[in-house]
C-alpha cells in the first residue's frame, strides 16, 4: 500500500561558474528525500547541468502560483523564472541527508563554510568539522586511518526518525579496524552516510574517543585525549581545512530537515539489516 504523499517545495541552484541562478520547484512524494530526487531529475531534464538542492520544506498546494510549468504526470512543478545572482560566491554543498529550511533562523545558509573548530574543555574536548558532500566519506576514512584499532563501532538510529520515543543503538565489535569500518560504510552507503536519521560512531579506547558522522552529516570527535585532538587537527589542516575560532553549522541556528534517499531502507528494515550483519542492540549504561 502506498503511503500518503506530501507536497514539497525546493530551492534549486544551478552551480554554473559563469551564470549561476536559482529556481523554485515543487513535488508530490511520500518522503522529502524522494521529492528532492524527483525535483533534481526534472531540473536536469530542464537543462540544468549541476543542480543542487539548497532549501526544502513542505508546502501548501493551495499557495501554488498560477504561472508555473509542470511535468507530464503533474508530479513536479517549477517556476519559469530563473533568478540569477553574481558568480564568484561558493556556498558549501551540504552532504546528502540534511537540508536547510526556508524558514528564517539565526543564521543564513550562506554563512556555513568549510572548516573546523576545537572546543578544548577542561576534560572532554570536541572537534566539529564542516565539509561538503564530496568530502565527508573520504575525510572520515582518513581520520579513521590515524588509529589502527577500534574497540567497537555503532549506528545510532535517532528518535526523530518516524518520531519514535527513543534513540536506538546497534553495536558491532567486529568492525574494529579502519578498513572494516570503511568497507561497511561503502557497502551500505545509502543506509548509513546518506541517511540523515543515523549517526555513525567509531570508538577508540585512547581518550574514550568517539569519532562520529552525526545525523547532521558533520564529523564530530569527542575525546579526553589532547594527543588525539592534535593528531586529528593536523590531519584536517593537511587536507586544507582551516581551523576557526567559531563556525556556523547547519545544526545551530538554522532551521533544517533530516531525510533519507528513496532507495534506502525504512527503519524496521534497517534494524533487521544491522542484526543480519552482526550488530546487537545496546542500551548506554547497561
Can you characterise this structure?
- By secondary structure, this protein is an alpha+beta fold.
- The protein folds into two domains: 85 residues; 160 residues, no CATH class.
- The protein is built from five helices and 16 strands.
- Strands 8-9-14-13-12-10-11-16 form an eight-stranded antiparallel β-sheet, covered by helices on one side. Strands 1, 2, 3, 4, 5 and 6 form a six-stranded antiparallel β-sheet that branches.
- Strand 13 and strand 14 form a beta hairpin.
- The two termini are 39 Å apart.
- The model has no long low-confidence stretch (mean pLDDT 96).
Fill in the keyword field for this structure.
286 residues; alpha+beta; six-stranded antiparallel sheet; 5 helices
Compact summary:
By secondary structure, the protein is an alpha+beta fold. Helices cover 20% and strands 29% of the residues.
Mean pLDDT: 96
Question: Residue ranges: pLDDT <50 for 5 or more in a row?
Answer: none
The residue fraction in helices comes out at: 10-25%
Alpha-beta classification: alpha+beta
Taken in chain order, the helices and strands follow as EEHEEEEEEEHEEHEEEHEHE
Q: How many beta-strand runs?
A: 16
General shape: globular
Strand proportion: 25-35%
Alpha-carbon Rg, integer: 20 Å
Distance between the termini: 39 Å
Assembly category: single chain
Strand arrangement within the widest β-sheet reads 8-9-14-13-12-10-11-16
Number of domains: 2
Number of helical stretches of at least 4 residues: 5
What does the largest sheet look like? Answer: 8 strands, antiparallel
